[in-house]
Structure formats: C-alpha cells, structure tokens
Amino acid sequence: RSASSALQRSIRDECGMQAAATMVLHTWNQRLGHHPHIHALVPGSGPSLDGSQWVPCRYTQATRKKPAQPFLVDNKELGRRFRGSYVRGVRRLIRAGVLEIDDLVQINAVLAEVQACDWVVYIQPPPTETSDPEDVLKYLARYMTGGPISDRRLIEVKDGRVHFWARSSDKSGRQVPVSLPTLEFIRCWTLHILPKGFTKARRYGGWSNTRQAAYQQQCEQLQPLSPSSSADLPDPLAPVPEPPSAETSDAVLKCPRCQTEMVLESHTRRPSWRELFYGPD
C-alpha cells in the first residue's frame, strides 16, 4: 500500500495521468538472505486525470552519446515518498495496537535512522524499443512463481553443506559458487514462506478490481491505435490455448541457433511441492 500510494502520487503530480500497477512482493536475495522489496509493472502512458485525453509516455533528452529513453517519474522523489508513506504507516499501526512494541524508544530510534537515508527505487524501461508487452510480463512472472532458489542454481549437497550459484557481490553480474550448512539452508529457505492468507501479488489504481473495467474502457477509447492494430491485440482475459502435443503437431522443432532438427531424448516431470513435503520420503 505504501509503494502504491507513493507511486500514484508521483504519476499524478509529474505525468498528470491515472496510475496503474501490478505489484509482487519479493523477500529474498541471491543468497537467500532477508531482503524484502517490491517489483512493480507500471504503464508509462494512460488516460489523463479527467479522462478526456491520452497522456503519452515521456522521454529523456537525447544527447550525442545517449539516445532518448522512456521516462516515468523522478526515482529519488518517489523513494522519499515511499519512505514517508511507509514510516507513517508503521506509526499508525503502533498507535492502533496492531504492532505490539515492547520498547517505543528503540523503535522510534530505528524509524529515525531509516528516515535519515534514501530508499532505493529503480525504474527500468522495456528491454528494447521493439519489446512486446509479453516481454515485460515474462520478467514480472519470474517473481510470481517458484521459490527463493531455482533448481538450476543448485550445485550439490556435500559434507553437510548445500552448494549453489549466486550473483557476485562485486556488481559484475557473474555467478559464483557459495555454500551454506544444510540446516541453515533449510532455515533460510523457510523464512520466505508467506503467512497463511497473505497475498503476494496485488493490483492498484486503474488495474484494481474495482476500477479495471472502467480504466480498460478509457484506454481503448483514448489510446492512439488504429482499429486494425487494436483488433489484432489479444484479449488479456481470454484463456491461453493449450500447446499442440507431439502427436498432433506436424511442426518440426529445430534448434534456434543452428536450425538442426531436435529429438526429445527424455522427459522428467517436475514434482510438486506437496509431493516433496508430504511424500513418503
């Protein structure tokens, strides 16, 4: 709620348009440490505040060395608004008795400390100018499924330690092997199981449940798309068709690099978490 409130205020004041966002809570880092943060999918264009016109995406000023880039809002100001909204929310919960604090002096010192530093907000445009909406959706989908660590990052379990790949801390982006004691690995993994009834993904603004229909109608009426191009857009609420099976499909699967025909050698079904936790082993 704090992130949404800050984002809607910044978009309203700087862009003069209605805000919309889908947000996903992410609680871990590459080494399974406690690192709560939010990933948000936000449209850069949209209906104006009064719904009378379409507000196009803003761009930065192009230079000799750097072309113009899509620009949403000032990330520094957004970070300050997020920080203020979050700290005010914590204080409200303390006054209402929802958060039971044993030492008010200590919590006030903590809140004063976090208010004294900038909160990080990173705004990233689509990967390329020709990116489809599906490319951005796939990016967000990675944080909506699976657990704190994927199977491909696991290396081995040896001598009571779990070895896995993690991003290097030197900001080079390379993967380095790290390890944790087995029990510590399990403890870190289970820290990221959300409480029962907790909603991991939420939609706000124009994409909220109460406003989605009206917002979508405004976008269809105002966005500068020709009837032919809008007719070709897929319905986001339409069911996704099942991929053709190997028996019914006549298409030959080829390697995307060398175009050599590929042959399926084996197939292993990935077990569900229910099987892993409650199975015979």
Architecture blueprint of SSEs:
Elements: H1 2-15, E1 20-28, E2 34-41, E3 46-47, E4 54-55, E5 58-59, E6 70-71, H2 75-95, H3 104-115, H4 133-141, E7 154-158, E8 161-167, E9 175-181, H5 182-190, E10 201-205, H6 212-222, H7 227-231, H8 273-278
Antiparallel strand pairs: 1-2, 1-10, 3-4, 5-6, 7-8, 8-9
Helix pairs in contact: 1-2
Question: What are the defining features of this structure?
Answer:
3-stranded antiparallel sheet; 17% strand; 281 residues; alpha+beta
Structural summary, described in words:
With 281 residues, the protein is an alpha+beta fold. Helices cover 31% and strands 17% of the residues. The strands form 4 sheets. The chain has a 3-stranded antiparallel β-sheet. The protein has a 3-stranded antiparallel β-sheet with strand order 7-8-9. The longest helix is centred in the N-terminal third of the chain and has 21 residues, at 75-95. The radius of gyration is 23 Å and the shape is globular.
